[in-house]
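Exercise 7. Given the components listed, write out the predicted structure of the assembled complex. Treat all entries as one system.
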Amino acid sequence: MGVVRRKSLSGTIIRYILVAIIIFWAIFLIYWGVVTSLKPPAETFTITGLSVPFLQFQPTLENWRTELSTRESRSALLNSIIVAVSATLIALVLGVPAGYALARFEFRRMKNRDLTIWFLSQRVLPPVVVLIPFFLIMRTLHLLDTLWALILVNATFVLPFAVVIMRQTFQDLPAELEEAAEVDGCSDFMSFWRISLPLAVPTLVAVAAICVAFTWNEFLFALSLTTLKAKTFPVYLAGAEDTRGVQFWFIATRAILALAPPTILALFIQRYIVRGLTFGAVKG
Amino acid sequence: MRKNRRAKYFFIFPAIIWVLAFTIFPLIYSLGLSFFRVRLGRPAQFVGLNNFARIFSDYKLGNSLRVTLLYVAITVSIQLILGILIALLFNQEIRGKNIFRALLILPIFCTPVAVGYLGLTIFYEEGGPINSILMSLFNLKIPWLSSRIWAWVAVFLLDIWQWTPFCFLVILAGLQSLPEEIYDAAYVDSSSEWEIFRKITFPMIQPVIMIVLLLRLIESFKIFDVVYSLTGGGPGTATEVYSLYTYRTGMKFFDLGYASALGYLLLAIVIVIINFLFRQIREVYE
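Answer.
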Protein backbone atom coordinates (compact mmCIF):
# COMPACT_ATOMS: atom_id res chain seq x y z
CA MET A 1 0.00 0.00 0.00
CA GLY A 2 0.87 3.65 -0.19
CA VAL A 3 3.69 5.03 1.76
CA VAL A 4 2.87 7.48 4.48
CA ARG A 5 5.17 10.43 4.22
CA ARG A 6 5.73 13.42 6.42
CA LYS A 7 2.63 15.55 6.10
CA SER A 8 2.25 19.26 5.81
CA LEU A 9 -0.97 21.15 5.16
CA SER A 10 0.29 22.98 2.08
CA GLY A 11 1.61 19.73 0.66
CA THR A 12 -1.79 18.13 1.13
CA ILE A 13 -3.57 21.02 -0.57
CA ILE A 14 -1.22 20.95 -3.54
CA ARG A 15 -1.70 17.21 -3.80
CA TYR A 16 -5.46 17.48 -4.01
CA ILE A 17 -5.30 20.34 -6.52
CA LEU A 18 -3.09 18.17 -8.72
CA VAL A 19 -5.48 15.25 -8.39
CA ALA A 20 -8.39 17.52 -9.35
CA ILE A 21 -6.56 18.74 -12.46
CA ILE A 22 -5.70 15.20 -13.51
CA ILE A 23 -9.26 13.96 -13.06
CA PHE A 24 -10.65 16.95 -14.94
CA TRP A 25 -8.26 16.26 -17.82
CA ALA A 26 -9.02 12.53 -17.80
CA ILE A 27 -12.78 12.85 -18.06
CA PHE A 28 -13.12 16.10 -19.99
CA LEU A 29 -13.41 14.53 -23.44
CA ILE A 30 -16.08 12.07 -22.30
CA TYR A 31 -17.87 14.79 -20.35
CA TRP A 32 -17.92 17.04 -23.40
CA GLY A 33 -19.29 14.24 -25.57
CA VAL A 34 -22.08 13.49 -23.12
CA VAL A 35 -22.97 17.16 -22.70
CA THR A 36 -22.99 17.82 -26.46
CA SER A 37 -25.23 14.82 -27.01
CA LEU A 38 -27.72 16.29 -24.51
CA LYS A 39 -27.87 19.74 -26.09
CA PRO A 40 -30.66 20.69 -28.45
CA PRO A 41 -29.02 20.80 -31.92
CA ALA A 42 -29.84 24.47 -32.40
CA GLU A 43 -27.91 25.37 -29.27
CA THR A 44 -24.81 23.26 -29.92
CA PHE A 45 -22.61 26.28 -30.54
CA THR A 46 -24.43 28.97 -28.61
CA ILE A 47 -23.87 27.46 -25.17
CA THR A 48 -20.33 28.33 -24.18
CA GLY A 49 -17.81 27.52 -21.47
CA LEU A 50 -18.24 24.23 -19.66
CA SER A 51 -21.87 23.89 -20.77
CA VAL A 52 -23.09 22.52 -17.44
CA PRO A 53 -26.45 20.79 -17.95
CA PHE A 54 -29.44 22.26 -16.06
CA LEU A 55 -27.39 25.31 -15.10
CA GLN A 56 -26.65 26.57 -18.58
CA PHE A 57 -29.18 24.67 -20.64
CA GLN A 58 -32.09 22.28 -20.36
CA PRO A 59 -30.78 18.83 -21.43
CA THR A 60 -32.82 16.86 -23.91
CA LEU A 61 -32.77 13.24 -25.01
CA GLU A 62 -33.84 14.20 -28.52
CA ASN A 63 -30.51 13.30 -30.16
CA TRP A 64 -30.48 9.93 -28.44
CA ARG A 65 -34.03 9.17 -29.50
CA THR A 66 -33.27 10.06 -33.12
CA GLU A 67 -30.05 8.05 -33.06
CA LEU A 68 -31.51 4.91 -31.53
CA SER A 69 -34.47 4.90 -33.88
CA THR A 70 -32.26 4.98 -36.99
CA ARG A 71 -32.25 1.57 -38.64
CA GLU A 72 -28.62 1.88 -39.77
CA SER A 73 -27.53 2.68 -36.25
CA ARG A 74 -29.33 -0.28 -34.72
CA SER A 75 -28.01 -2.71 -37.29
CA ALA A 76 -24.45 -1.44 -36.71
CA LEU A 77 -24.88 -1.92 -32.96
CA LEU A 78 -26.19 -5.43 -33.48
CA ASN A 79 -23.28 -6.26 -35.83
CA SER A 80 -20.78 -5.02 -33.28
CA ILE A 81 -22.34 -7.14 -30.54
CA ILE A 82 -22.41 -10.28 -32.68
CA VAL A 83 -18.81 -9.85 -33.82
CA ALA A 84 -17.51 -9.07 -30.32
CA VAL A 85 -19.27 -11.99 -28.64
CA SER A 86 -18.46 -14.54 -31.35
CA ALA A 87 -14.81 -13.57 -31.70
CA THR A 88 -14.43 -13.71 -27.91
CA LEU A 89 -16.04 -17.15 -27.71
CA ILE A 90 -13.69 -18.51 -30.39
CA ALA A 91 -10.68 -16.97 -28.69
CA LEU A 92 -11.67 -18.53 -25.36
CA VAL A 93 -12.47 -21.97 -26.76
CA LEU A 94 -9.08 -22.08 -28.50
CA GLY A 95 -7.04 -20.07 -26.03
CA VAL A 96 -8.07 -21.39 -22.62
CA PRO A 97 -7.06 -25.03 -23.28
CA ALA A 98 -3.85 -23.80 -24.91
CA GLY A 99 -3.07 -21.69 -21.85
CA TYR A 100 -3.80 -24.71 -19.66
CA ALA A 101 -1.47 -26.92 -21.69
CA LEU A 102 1.33 -24.35 -21.45
CA ALA A 103 0.87 -24.16 -17.68
CA ARG A 104 0.53 -27.84 -16.88
CA PHE A 105 2.40 -29.90 -19.48
CA GLU A 106 5.98 -29.81 -20.58
CA PHE A 107 6.66 -29.30 -24.27
CA ARG A 108 10.08 -30.36 -25.41
CA ARG A 109 10.55 -29.73 -29.10
CA MET A 110 9.55 -26.12 -28.68
CA LYS A 111 9.84 -25.07 -25.06
CA ASN A 112 6.85 -23.73 -23.13
CA ARG A 113 8.36 -20.28 -22.87
CA ASP A 114 9.02 -20.09 -26.60
CA LEU A 115 5.50 -21.23 -27.42
CA THR A 116 4.10 -18.59 -25.06
CA ILE A 117 6.21 -15.89 -26.65
CA TRP A 118 5.16 -17.15 -30.08
CA PHE A 119 1.51 -16.61 -29.16
CA LEU A 120 2.34 -13.29 -27.54
CA SER A 121 4.25 -12.06 -30.59
CA GLN A 122 0.99 -11.99 -32.56
CA ARG A 123 0.21 -8.79 -30.68
CA VAL A 124 3.45 -7.20 -31.87
CA LEU A 125 2.41 -7.48 -35.49
CA PRO A 126 0.95 -4.19 -36.75
CA PRO A 127 -2.44 -5.25 -38.16
CA VAL A 128 -1.92 -3.29 -41.38
CA VAL A 129 0.77 -5.84 -42.35
CA VAL A 130 -1.84 -8.56 -42.85
CA LEU A 131 -4.58 -6.25 -44.16
CA ILE A 132 -4.02 -6.89 -47.87
CA PRO A 133 -3.76 -10.70 -47.66
CA PHE A 134 -6.85 -10.81 -45.43
CA PHE A 135 -8.75 -8.69 -47.91
CA LEU A 136 -7.80 -10.97 -50.80
CA ILE A 137 -8.50 -14.16 -48.84
CA MET A 138 -11.93 -12.92 -47.79
CA ARG A 139 -12.61 -11.83 -51.35
CA THR A 140 -11.71 -15.28 -52.67
CA LEU A 141 -13.93 -16.91 -50.06
CA HIS A 142 -16.77 -14.48 -50.85
CA LEU A 143 -16.77 -13.34 -47.24
CA LEU A 144 -16.32 -9.62 -47.86
CA ASP A 145 -19.01 -7.56 -46.13
CA THR A 146 -20.00 -10.47 -43.91
CA LEU A 147 -19.76 -10.76 -40.16
CA TRP A 148 -17.79 -14.01 -40.63
CA ALA A 149 -14.78 -12.13 -41.95
CA LEU A 150 -14.73 -9.81 -38.94
CA ILE A 151 -15.27 -12.65 -36.46
CA LEU A 152 -12.33 -14.62 -37.88
CA VAL A 153 -10.01 -11.60 -37.91
CA ASN A 154 -10.88 -10.42 -34.43
CA ALA A 155 -10.69 -13.89 -32.89
CA THR A 156 -7.14 -14.02 -34.26
CA PHE A 157 -6.25 -10.64 -32.81
CA VAL A 158 -7.50 -11.36 -29.27
CA LEU A 159 -6.36 -14.99 -29.04
CA PRO A 160 -3.00 -14.04 -27.45
CA PHE A 161 -4.84 -12.45 -24.50
CA ALA A 162 -6.68 -15.69 -23.82
CA VAL A 163 -3.62 -17.94 -24.16
CA VAL A 164 -1.10 -15.88 -22.22
CA ILE A 165 -3.30 -14.63 -19.38
CA MET A 166 -4.97 -18.01 -18.83
CA ARG A 167 -1.59 -19.72 -18.83
CA GLN A 168 -0.53 -17.55 -15.95
CA THR A 169 -3.79 -18.07 -14.10
CA PHE A 170 -3.50 -21.86 -14.32
CA GLN A 171 0.13 -21.64 -13.24
CA ASP A 172 -0.91 -19.79 -10.10
CA LEU A 173 -3.42 -22.51 -9.17
CA PRO A 174 -2.00 -25.27 -6.98
CA ALA A 175 -1.28 -28.44 -8.96
CA GLU A 176 -1.89 -30.67 -5.91
CA LEU A 177 -5.63 -30.79 -6.44
CA GLU A 178 -5.21 -32.19 -9.93
CA GLU A 179 -2.56 -34.63 -8.79
CA ALA A 180 -4.94 -35.95 -6.15
CA ALA A 181 -7.69 -36.27 -8.74
CA GLU A 182 -5.34 -38.13 -11.02
CA VAL A 183 -4.68 -40.73 -8.31
CA ASP A 184 -8.44 -41.22 -8.16
CA GLY A 185 -8.41 -41.99 -11.88
CA CYS A 186 -9.41 -38.63 -13.26
CA SER A 187 -8.33 -38.07 -16.87
CA ASP A 188 -6.46 -34.99 -18.04
CA PHE A 189 -9.56 -33.62 -19.70
CA MET A 190 -11.66 -34.20 -16.61
CA SER A 191 -9.22 -32.50 -14.28
CA PHE A 192 -9.05 -29.52 -16.62
CA TRP A 193 -12.82 -29.28 -16.97
CA ARG A 194 -13.87 -30.17 -13.43
CA ILE A 195 -11.06 -28.81 -11.27
CA SER A 196 -8.92 -26.11 -12.87
CA LEU A 197 -11.42 -24.36 -15.09
CA PRO A 198 -13.99 -23.64 -12.33
CA LEU A 199 -11.23 -22.15 -10.19
CA ALA A 200 -10.15 -19.92 -13.07
CA VAL A 201 -13.60 -18.47 -13.76
CA PRO A 202 -12.96 -14.96 -12.37
CA THR A 203 -9.97 -14.43 -14.67
CA LEU A 204 -11.85 -16.08 -17.48
CA VAL A 205 -14.57 -13.46 -17.17
CA ALA A 206 -11.98 -10.67 -17.13
CA VAL A 207 -10.24 -12.07 -20.22
CA ALA A 208 -13.61 -12.30 -21.98
CA ALA A 209 -14.34 -8.66 -21.15
CA ILE A 210 -10.96 -7.55 -22.48
CA CYS A 211 -11.49 -9.53 -25.70
CA VAL A 212 -14.97 -8.05 -26.15
CA ALA A 213 -13.64 -4.52 -25.60
CA PHE A 214 -10.76 -4.91 -28.06
CA THR A 215 -12.99 -6.46 -30.71
CA TRP A 216 -15.59 -3.76 -30.21
CA ASN A 217 -12.94 -1.06 -30.66
CA GLU A 218 -11.29 -2.61 -33.75
CA PHE A 219 -11.57 -0.27 -36.71
CA LEU A 220 -9.05 -0.84 -39.53
CA PHE A 221 -10.32 -4.27 -40.60
CA ALA A 222 -13.95 -3.43 -39.99
CA LEU A 223 -13.45 -0.47 -42.32
CA SER A 224 -11.65 -2.45 -45.02
CA LEU A 225 -13.65 -5.66 -45.06
CA THR A 226 -17.18 -4.23 -44.94
CA THR A 227 -19.12 -1.98 -47.24
CA LEU A 228 -22.78 -2.02 -46.24
CA LYS A 229 -24.41 -4.92 -44.44
CA ALA A 230 -21.66 -5.90 -42.02
CA LYS A 231 -20.66 -2.41 -40.84
CA THR A 232 -19.76 -2.35 -37.16
CA PHE A 233 -20.57 0.62 -34.98
CA PRO A 234 -17.15 2.35 -35.26
CA VAL A 235 -17.38 2.15 -39.06
CA TYR A 236 -20.89 3.54 -38.96
CA LEU A 237 -19.60 6.36 -36.74
CA ALA A 238 -16.81 7.09 -39.24
CA GLY A 239 -19.30 7.27 -42.11
CA ALA A 240 -21.48 9.84 -40.37
CA GLU A 241 -19.38 12.81 -41.41
CA ASP A 242 -19.58 12.23 -45.15
CA THR A 243 -23.33 12.06 -45.33
CA ARG A 244 -24.47 14.73 -42.93
CA GLY A 245 -21.77 17.36 -42.73
CA VAL A 246 -20.36 18.31 -39.38
CA GLN A 247 -23.35 17.73 -37.15
CA PHE A 248 -21.66 17.65 -33.79
CA TRP A 249 -24.73 16.60 -31.85
CA PHE A 250 -24.97 13.34 -33.79
CA ILE A 251 -21.23 12.80 -33.80
CA ALA A 252 -21.13 13.21 -30.02
CA THR A 253 -24.13 10.92 -29.46
CA ARG A 254 -22.64 8.22 -31.65
CA ALA A 255 -19.18 8.54 -30.18
CA ILE A 256 -20.56 8.14 -26.66
CA LEU A 257 -22.70 5.22 -27.79
CA ALA A 258 -19.55 3.65 -29.30
CA LEU A 259 -17.36 4.00 -26.25
CA ALA A 260 -19.95 3.21 -23.58
CA PRO A 261 -19.90 -0.62 -23.79
CA PRO A 262 -16.11 -1.14 -23.54
CA THR A 263 -15.63 1.47 -20.80
CA ILE A 264 -18.50 0.10 -18.72
CA LEU A 265 -17.11 -3.43 -19.09
CA ALA A 266 -13.73 -2.15 -17.94
CA LEU A 267 -15.21 -0.85 -14.70
CA PHE A 268 -16.41 -4.35 -13.82
CA ILE A 269 -12.99 -5.94 -14.22
CA GLN A 270 -10.87 -3.21 -12.64
CA ARG A 271 -8.94 -5.66 -10.49
CA TYR A 272 -7.71 -7.56 -13.55
CA ILE A 273 -6.90 -4.71 -15.91
CA VAL A 274 -3.22 -4.28 -15.10
CA ARG A 275 -2.58 -8.01 -15.29
CA GLY A 276 -4.68 -8.35 -18.42
CA LEU A 277 -3.24 -5.50 -20.44
CA THR A 278 0.36 -6.39 -19.56
CA PHE A 279 -0.24 -10.08 -20.39
CA GLY A 280 0.43 -11.06 -16.82
CA ALA A 281 3.86 -9.37 -16.76
CA VAL A 282 2.76 -7.01 -13.98
CA LYS A 283 0.43 -8.16 -11.22
CA GLY A 284 -2.10 -5.51 -10.35
CA MET B 1 4.66 -30.27 -14.89
CA ARG B 2 3.39 -33.40 -16.48
CA LYS B 3 5.44 -34.67 -19.37
CA ASN B 4 4.54 -37.52 -21.65
CA ARG B 5 0.87 -37.01 -22.21
CA ARG B 6 -1.00 -37.17 -25.45
CA ALA B 7 -3.64 -34.87 -24.05
CA LYS B 8 -1.36 -31.86 -24.19
CA TYR B 9 -1.47 -31.86 -27.97
CA PHE B 10 -5.25 -31.86 -28.01
CA PHE B 11 -5.20 -28.87 -25.71
CA ILE B 12 -2.78 -26.78 -27.69
CA PHE B 13 -3.08 -27.81 -31.34
CA PRO B 14 -6.33 -26.00 -32.18
CA ALA B 15 -4.82 -22.68 -31.11
CA ILE B 16 -1.58 -23.34 -32.99
CA ILE B 17 -3.43 -24.31 -36.16
CA TRP B 18 -5.59 -21.20 -35.89
CA VAL B 19 -2.54 -18.96 -35.67
CA LEU B 20 -0.87 -20.78 -38.55
CA ALA B 21 -3.98 -20.35 -40.69
CA PHE B 22 -4.88 -16.76 -39.82
CA THR B 23 -1.55 -15.12 -39.06
CA ILE B 24 1.33 -17.10 -40.51
CA PHE B 25 -0.40 -17.95 -43.79
CA PRO B 26 -1.47 -14.33 -44.46
CA LEU B 27 2.07 -13.22 -43.65
CA ILE B 28 3.54 -15.62 -46.20
CA TYR B 29 0.85 -14.70 -48.71
CA SER B 30 1.69 -11.05 -48.15
CA LEU B 31 5.38 -11.69 -48.75
CA GLY B 32 4.47 -13.37 -52.03
CA LEU B 33 2.24 -10.48 -53.04
CA SER B 34 5.02 -8.00 -52.47
CA PHE B 35 6.87 -9.43 -55.50
CA PHE B 36 3.90 -8.87 -57.79
CA ARG B 37 2.07 -6.01 -59.33
CA VAL B 38 -1.46 -6.82 -58.17
CA ARG B 39 -4.51 -4.91 -59.29
CA LEU B 40 -8.06 -6.14 -58.79
CA GLY B 41 -9.60 -7.74 -61.85
CA ARG B 42 -6.28 -8.12 -63.65
CA PRO B 43 -3.83 -11.03 -63.52
CA ALA B 44 -0.93 -10.47 -61.17
CA GLN B 45 2.35 -9.61 -62.79
CA PHE B 46 5.71 -10.67 -61.38
CA VAL B 47 7.91 -7.63 -60.84
CA GLY B 48 10.70 -9.04 -58.66
CA LEU B 49 12.04 -6.54 -56.19
CA ASN B 50 10.46 -3.54 -57.94
CA ASN B 51 8.02 -2.87 -55.12
CA PHE B 52 10.86 -2.73 -52.62
CA ALA B 53 12.94 -0.55 -54.92
CA ARG B 54 10.00 1.88 -55.14
CA ILE B 55 10.22 2.37 -51.40
CA PHE B 56 13.41 4.37 -51.76
CA SER B 57 12.03 6.88 -54.22
CA ASP B 58 8.60 7.25 -52.56
CA TYR B 59 8.64 10.65 -50.90
CA LYS B 60 5.15 10.16 -49.45
CA LEU B 61 6.39 7.04 -47.73
CA GLY B 62 9.38 8.95 -46.38
CA ASN B 63 6.95 11.48 -44.98
CA SER B 64 4.69 8.92 -43.33
CA LEU B 65 7.70 7.13 -41.85
CA ARG B 66 9.00 10.37 -40.36
CA VAL B 67 5.58 11.29 -39.03
CA THR B 68 5.14 7.88 -37.42
CA LEU B 69 8.58 7.66 -35.82
CA LEU B 70 8.29 11.16 -34.42
CA TYR B 71 4.80 10.43 -33.14
CA VAL B 72 5.94 7.22 -31.42
CA ALA B 73 8.99 8.84 -29.85
CA ILE B 74 7.19 11.92 -28.56
CA THR B 75 3.91 10.46 -27.33
CA VAL B 76 5.44 7.40 -25.70
CA SER B 77 8.00 9.43 -23.77
CA ILE B 78 5.42 11.96 -22.60
CA GLN B 79 3.02 9.19 -21.59
CA LEU B 80 5.74 7.42 -19.61
CA ILE B 81 6.91 10.54 -17.79
CA LEU B 82 3.38 11.70 -16.96
CA GLY B 83 2.45 8.14 -16.02
CA ILE B 84 5.33 7.94 -13.53
CA LEU B 85 4.55 11.35 -12.03
CA ILE B 86 0.85 10.63 -11.61
CA ALA B 87 1.60 7.20 -10.17
CA LEU B 88 3.94 8.78 -7.59
CA LEU B 89 1.20 11.26 -6.69
CA PHE B 90 -1.41 8.52 -6.29
CA ASN B 91 0.98 6.36 -4.30
CA GLN B 92 0.50 8.79 -1.44
CA GLU B 93 -2.42 9.00 0.91
CA ILE B 94 -5.41 10.30 -1.05
CA ARG B 95 -9.04 10.04 -0.04
CA GLY B 96 -11.32 8.50 -2.63
CA LYS B 97 -8.34 7.04 -4.44
CA ASN B 98 -10.33 4.08 -5.74
CA ILE B 99 -12.92 6.28 -7.41
CA PHE B 100 -10.22 8.43 -9.04
CA ARG B 101 -8.41 5.32 -10.18
CA ALA B 102 -11.63 3.99 -11.74
CA LEU B 103 -12.17 7.29 -13.59
CA LEU B 104 -8.63 7.10 -14.94
CA ILE B 105 -9.33 3.65 -16.37
CA LEU B 106 -12.03 5.00 -18.69
CA PRO B 107 -9.82 6.58 -21.40
CA ILE B 108 -7.89 3.34 -21.95
CA PHE B 109 -10.99 1.49 -23.08
CA CYS B 110 -12.57 4.24 -25.17
CA THR B 111 -13.09 3.33 -28.81
CA PRO B 112 -10.21 5.16 -30.56
CA VAL B 113 -12.36 6.23 -33.51
CA ALA B 114 -14.85 7.73 -31.09
CA VAL B 115 -11.99 9.56 -29.36
CA GLY B 116 -11.00 11.03 -32.72
CA TYR B 117 -14.52 12.26 -33.42
CA LEU B 118 -14.92 13.68 -29.93
CA GLY B 119 -11.60 15.39 -30.61
CA LEU B 120 -13.20 16.94 -33.66
CA THR B 121 -15.82 18.55 -31.43
CA ILE B 122 -13.43 19.86 -28.75
CA PHE B 123 -10.77 21.12 -31.18
CA TYR B 124 -13.39 22.80 -33.36
CA GLU B 125 -11.89 26.14 -34.29
CA GLU B 126 -14.99 28.32 -34.24
CA GLY B 127 -16.39 28.04 -30.74
CA GLY B 128 -15.22 24.58 -29.69
CA PRO B 129 -14.65 24.40 -25.92
CA ILE B 130 -10.85 24.69 -26.04
CA ASN B 131 -10.77 27.64 -28.39
CA SER B 132 -13.59 29.41 -26.61
CA ILE B 133 -11.74 29.12 -23.28
CA LEU B 134 -8.48 30.28 -24.86
CA MET B 135 -10.35 33.11 -26.55
CA SER B 136 -11.86 34.43 -23.35
CA LEU B 137 -8.66 34.04 -21.33
CA PHE B 138 -5.93 35.06 -23.77
CA ASN B 139 -7.81 36.24 -26.83
CA LEU B 140 -6.15 33.36 -28.65
CA LYS B 141 -7.54 31.29 -31.51
CA ILE B 142 -5.61 28.18 -32.39
CA PRO B 143 -6.05 26.74 -35.92
CA TRP B 144 -6.18 23.18 -34.52
CA LEU B 145 -6.97 21.22 -37.62
CA SER B 146 -6.00 23.56 -40.43
CA SER B 147 -2.37 24.12 -39.52
CA ARG B 148 0.22 21.37 -39.94
CA ILE B 149 1.82 21.84 -36.55
CA TRP B 150 -1.41 22.19 -34.59
CA ALA B 151 -3.01 19.20 -36.28
CA TRP B 152 -0.03 17.25 -35.00
CA VAL B 153 -0.45 18.64 -31.53
CA ALA B 154 -4.14 17.72 -31.57
CA VAL B 155 -3.38 14.10 -32.51
CA PHE B 156 -0.65 13.95 -29.86
CA LEU B 157 -2.92 15.36 -27.18
CA LEU B 158 -5.63 12.80 -27.86
CA ASP B 159 -3.14 9.95 -27.85
CA ILE B 160 -1.52 11.17 -24.65
CA TRP B 161 -5.00 11.56 -23.15
CA GLN B 162 -5.91 8.00 -23.98
CA TRP B 163 -2.72 6.18 -23.02
CA THR B 164 -1.17 8.07 -20.10
CA PRO B 165 -3.71 6.36 -17.78
CA PHE B 166 -2.42 2.97 -18.93
CA CYS B 167 1.16 3.90 -18.00
CA PHE B 168 -0.09 5.35 -14.71
CA LEU B 169 -2.10 2.27 -13.80
CA VAL B 170 0.68 -0.24 -14.44
CA ILE B 171 3.39 1.84 -12.80
CA LEU B 172 1.15 2.43 -9.76
CA ALA B 173 0.70 -1.34 -9.48
CA GLY B 174 4.48 -1.63 -9.58
CA LEU B 175 4.91 1.01 -6.86
CA GLN B 176 2.35 -0.61 -4.60
CA SER B 177 4.09 -3.95 -4.78
CA LEU B 178 7.26 -2.48 -3.26
CA PRO B 179 7.82 -3.38 0.40
CA GLU B 180 7.35 -0.46 2.76
CA GLU B 181 10.32 -1.35 4.94
CA ILE B 182 12.81 -0.08 2.40
CA TYR B 183 11.37 3.39 2.77
CA ASP B 184 11.53 3.29 6.57
CA ALA B 185 15.25 2.63 6.32
CA ALA B 186 15.67 5.35 3.72
CA TYR B 187 13.96 7.93 5.90
CA VAL B 188 16.20 7.06 8.81
CA ASP B 189 19.17 7.87 6.61
CA SER B 190 17.08 10.89 5.66
CA SER B 191 17.86 11.61 2.11
CA SER B 192 15.66 14.03 0.15
CA GLU B 193 12.50 12.79 -1.58
CA TRP B 194 14.20 13.14 -4.94
CA GLU B 195 17.16 11.12 -3.79
CA ILE B 196 14.92 8.38 -2.46
CA PHE B 197 13.14 8.26 -5.81
CA ARG B 198 16.35 8.22 -7.80
CA LYS B 199 18.26 5.72 -5.68
CA ILE B 200 15.51 3.42 -4.40
CA THR B 201 12.13 3.73 -6.05
CA PHE B 202 13.18 4.13 -9.65
CA PRO B 203 15.63 1.21 -9.79
CA MET B 204 13.01 -1.04 -8.18
CA ILE B 205 10.23 -0.19 -10.60
CA GLN B 206 12.51 -0.12 -13.62
CA PRO B 207 11.42 -3.58 -14.83
CA VAL B 208 7.80 -2.43 -14.75
CA ILE B 209 8.69 0.73 -16.66
CA MET B 210 10.45 -1.37 -19.28
CA ILE B 211 7.30 -3.45 -19.76
CA VAL B 212 5.14 -0.34 -20.08
CA LEU B 213 7.61 1.12 -22.58
CA LEU B 214 7.60 -2.06 -24.64
CA LEU B 215 3.81 -2.36 -24.71
CA ARG B 216 3.35 1.30 -25.59
CA LEU B 217 5.92 1.09 -28.40
CA ILE B 218 4.17 -1.96 -29.85
CA GLU B 219 0.75 -0.34 -29.76
CA SER B 220 1.93 3.09 -30.93
CA PHE B 221 3.25 1.76 -34.21
CA LYS B 222 -0.28 0.58 -34.97
CA ILE B 223 -1.78 4.07 -34.84
CA PHE B 224 -4.53 4.53 -37.41
CA ASP B 225 -7.96 5.15 -35.88
CA VAL B 226 -7.46 8.50 -34.18
CA VAL B 227 -5.67 10.01 -37.16
CA TYR B 228 -8.25 8.66 -39.60
CA SER B 229 -11.11 10.19 -37.66
CA LEU B 230 -9.55 13.44 -36.43
CA THR B 231 -7.45 14.73 -39.32
CA GLY B 232 -7.76 12.12 -42.07
CA GLY B 233 -3.98 12.45 -42.41
CA GLY B 234 -4.24 16.14 -43.17
CA PRO B 235 -3.84 18.96 -43.66
CA GLY B 236 -2.12 17.71 -46.83
CA THR B 237 -0.11 14.76 -45.62
CA ALA B 238 1.05 16.38 -42.38
CA THR B 239 -0.37 13.65 -40.14
CA GLU B 240 -0.49 10.75 -42.59
CA VAL B 241 0.90 7.99 -40.39
CA TYR B 242 2.31 4.77 -41.80
CA SER B 243 -0.77 2.58 -41.36
CA LEU B 244 -2.94 5.23 -42.98
CA TYR B 245 -0.61 5.53 -45.98
CA THR B 246 -0.49 1.75 -46.38
CA TYR B 247 -4.27 1.51 -46.03
CA ARG B 248 -4.75 4.12 -48.74
CA THR B 249 -2.22 2.50 -51.06
CA GLY B 250 -3.96 -0.85 -50.72
CA MET B 251 -7.62 -0.13 -50.11
CA LYS B 252 -8.12 3.18 -51.94
CA PHE B 253 -5.70 2.88 -54.88
CA PHE B 254 -5.74 -0.94 -54.87
CA ASP B 255 -2.01 -1.10 -55.41
CA LEU B 256 -2.01 -4.35 -53.46
CA GLY B 257 1.51 -5.56 -54.22
CA TYR B 258 3.14 -2.32 -53.17
CA ALA B 259 0.95 -2.09 -50.05
CA SER B 260 2.18 -5.58 -49.06
CA ALA B 261 5.77 -4.46 -49.46
CA LEU B 262 5.01 -1.41 -47.31
CA GLY B 263 3.56 -3.70 -44.66
CA TYR B 264 6.75 -5.74 -44.58
CA LEU B 265 8.89 -2.65 -44.18
CA LEU B 266 6.84 -1.63 -41.14
CA LEU B 267 7.10 -5.13 -39.71
CA ALA B 268 10.88 -5.05 -40.14
CA ILE B 269 11.16 -1.69 -38.39
CA VAL B 270 8.94 -2.77 -35.49
CA ILE B 271 10.81 -6.05 -35.04
CA VAL B 272 14.20 -4.35 -34.94
CA ILE B 273 13.05 -1.85 -32.31
CA ILE B 274 11.03 -4.31 -30.23
CA ASN B 275 13.58 -7.12 -30.36
CA PHE B 276 16.09 -5.05 -28.51
CA LEU B 277 13.67 -4.46 -25.64
CA PHE B 278 12.01 -7.85 -25.75
CA ARG B 279 15.23 -9.66 -24.92
CA GLN B 280 15.35 -7.75 -21.68
CA ILE B 281 11.95 -8.77 -20.39
CA ARG B 282 11.98 -12.32 -21.76
CA GLU B 283 12.58 -13.86 -18.37
CA VAL B 284 9.19 -12.65 -17.17
CA TYR B 285 7.63 -15.51 -19.13
CA GLU B 286 10.07 -18.11 -17.86
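Discussion: The CA atoms of residues 167 and 212 of chain B lie 6 Å apart. The radius of gyration of chain B is 24 Å.
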